[in-house]
Specification:
This protein is about 10% helix and about 45% strand. The protein has one domain. The protein is mostly beta strands and about 200 residues long.
Amino acid sequence: MRKIVIILSVLTLIVVDSCGQATKKQVETTNLPPMPWHTINIVWNFKNPNTDIDRLDMDIMIDRDVPTSYSLYISPFNSLFNNIQFYAGIQTNVINTNPIDSSYIAIGKGGIFSRWSTHSDELISLDYTDMQPNGFRESSTTEGNFCSVRCPFIWTKGTYTVSLVKNETIDFKNQPHTWVSYEITDKSKKNFNLYLFNYVSRRNY
């Protein structure tokens, strides 16, 4: 598993370096597709899938400082819980929504954990989320029907452990549901952890 983590980290950061080498003329004369761009996707299939995972940890190594002028999302986790789409990672510019006019506010670097609705026409409520005191959350239809928790986190050059952790199971809307937390640990600061929480269905988990 450690080798897989290193490969993911190196490939992700090559994208940053390649973007930085583009000249102004190249950018101005190139017809680019609309963002977001999925520059690199890597899928790992476990040979012997475990149907009851309590915790999944992955180390990511960032070999240089990435400025907030880049629109970059490093998403080590992008998969399904019981056929429910989710992703989690770190971004250079996490977006918050202004409650007055619904405009977007970029708050800088942070962590993000999102899950989608089980029905394409069903807006998923914020009841499915919890967060840190300095975090915020969103229920939106901008990329399908999803809910999301975000939190400021100034990540820089270094190594971080990102984790998905299975927590307590509760009765929610007359069905058993389990809290799943997304956690970020700065390896250079032993006592630092960032926690973002989200619900997933307990069924077949």
